[in-house]
């Protein structure tokens, strides 16, 4: 089936692909360039860090299994100086390895084998989230089809009425809605909401997420806005 012509971005987005599998690199480079992205590729962690410093990519697609260092160490090296979005692309499926990458600073995690359309959608979302926001309150109001969050006033409206949230529910909601579409790890949520001494009490998150869903989701049993990524964390979708 013929594909529709790719839409050319106003300003080409630069992508750094870090992977030691030539077939995957080739497929990514072809698909990204066909959509008018600028692409650099690195076969190992050291080259990735050098290219990132020299070329300043807008987004990084990173394999964890590199020949010279672990991908988590590349993430930590990048996070020492840049907030560039990092999408992990890895065959590792163990929850602890996924959580380690997210806690190191990755923004998203895609498991190999992957669908190219899904990866490109995740990449576009990461670039959108990283785009600079305006001042004068822009971005303070978060609207979904079901409810509205006013971050400045610390209020939530649904069906024309205020929704009463506990302080813990509000804090959890605030952390999630400030990163729409981004996978937020369980450890990050626990430490931001309950404090740095917390990191493994996933039952806290299950309880409070269930309460948020009951108050804000149209169908709490089939959530649209507060999505669970099993073993990893949660994602807020508008």
Structure in a nutshell:
It contains 8 helices and 12 strands.
Distinctive features:
238 residues; alpha/beta; Rossmann fold; Arc Repressor Mutant, subunit A; five-stranded parallel beta sheet; four-stranded antiparallel beta sheet; disordered N terminus
Q: Over all CA atoms, what is the radius of gyration?
A: 19 Å
Give the topology string: H per helix, E per strand.
Answer: EHEHEHEHEHEEEEHEHHEE
Distance between the termini: 31 Å
CATH homologous superfamily of the largest domain?
A: Response regulator
Instruction: Give the helix proportion (percent range).
Output: 25-40%
Count, helices: 8
Strand content: 15-25%
Subcellular location: Cytoplasm
DNA-binding region: 139-238
GO molecular function, one term: cis-regulatory region sequence-specific DNA binding
Protein name: Transcriptional regulatory protein KdpE
Description:
The chain is α/β, with parallel strands linked by helices and 238 residues long. It folds into two domains: 14-130, 3-Layer(aba) Sandwich (Rossmann fold), CATH 3.40.50.2300; 141-236, Winged helix-like DNA-binding domain superfamily/Winged helix DNA-binding domain (Arc Repressor Mutant, subunit A). 39% of the residues lie in helices and 19% in strands. The chain is built from eight helices and twelve strands. The strands form three sheets. The protein has a five-stranded parallel beta sheet with strand order 2-1-3-4-5, sandwiched between helices. The longest helix is centred in the middle third of the chain and has 15 residues, at 116-130. It is found in: Cytoplasm.
